[in-house]
Amino acid sequence: MDRLDLFPLSAKIKNDFLTIAGQDLAKLAEEYGTPLYLYDRATLDASVDDYKKALASHYPSTGFRQAQPTNSGQRPASASVTYAGKAFLCTAIAQWTQMHGLHVDCTGEGEIAIAMAGGVPREHILVHGVNKSTADLKSALQHAGTIVVDNLTELKTLESDSLLSKRRKQASALQIWLRLLPGIAVDTHHAHTLTGQHDSKFGMTREEILEAATFCKNNNLPLNGIHFHQGSNFRDASPLKAAIERGLDLAKEIGFNDDWHFSPGGGWGVTYHEDELPHPSIENYVRGIAEAVIEGCSQRGLSLPHLHLEPGRSLVARAGVAVYKVGAIKRRGDKVWILIDGGMTDNPRHALYGARYSCLPVAGVGGESGVLSLSKQSEKISIAGPYCESGDVIIEDLPMPYIKEGDLIAIPMSGAYHLSMSSNYNGSCRPAVVWLEDGKANMIVRRETADDLLKRDFGL
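The chain above was modelled as a monomer; its predicted structure follows.
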């Protein structure tokens, strides 16, 4: 295991240069400019395949293999994988999700619009959100197949909306799931990535869920699912079992039977730094969930639900690489600052969560053998951006070969929660995004310009 294992599966060293999908990163940077985000389709495809194979092995799924009887004699259930729009969503990514038959979870009307532009059908759009606006709910009712209700206020707003009666009459039936607050935390290593603990802002308590279920029954609302989510970027799946038990208890109390849905969320972790390698096992994660659901349903006399997994960053993080150009270099005794042309405006994760990243220079990373070599390591560097914040840092104290002004660097594991959380702070323009597939590079999102920043600005 070495630093190259953090990069996309197609990453290779060729003639002392880092390449991805056969593409020379230096040439891509010259053509499209920097900062530049690259997405490798081969890595995206492999991540989906890992989840589908794991579900086919461990959950009786009509979706991913020929249906087989379960040990308990129950009918085979189905399973699906949901792409997290909040990780990164653009038209091309939405189109790619449908090449694999994925669902897409959307938070609000903006993500719903992008999913629709990418051809995601109504039945594959799930709508999340802790405080959905009226506009969000109207968009969800018009264009989505499933609404995950976070609170009683939202549920009552839904019931009162005149669009709901129209949706009930459509061939593609609306589904409503209730979001449970399980009150059980997972270890995400940062408080801001926890969502399932007892004092979280997300979801409903057991009592609120039961009240919401009664409200749905009394008002003839199409309730047929339970959802929860405990946190993002965790590696120990053991706390999921207790939360699954609580979710299944509620399913039993509500009275779900032959055709119901269950989603224990997602948030399975990824490796951002070589110190954390190897990558967490997707199969172990899926197996733990599947076994807990199958056993829990058997104990309660519940039919197996349609199982929905929301892998989040573990589908897309490794596929993405950010390329930057080095500007000024400042050496302050033991502190070496490598200043680049991007930073917290395209990747705020270090500032928000203290996230650790690794890095490689684009040139000078090996020889003809194609083996990564960092034998020229000479110093520890910290990498920061050009913005007027001391928190505008991406990497701290990473051993690296000697870096010169004008060099290009590539930061792996950049596919999730970078561009989707980006900003125009200091008037910065968001980077271009290039899709790499079969030895070809295609721009899927163009770089923003100053003219773009002014389009919404009318002056006095």
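Residues 3-34+319-454 form a domain with the Lyase, Ornithine Decarboxylase; Chain A, domain 1 fold (CATH 2.40.37.10).
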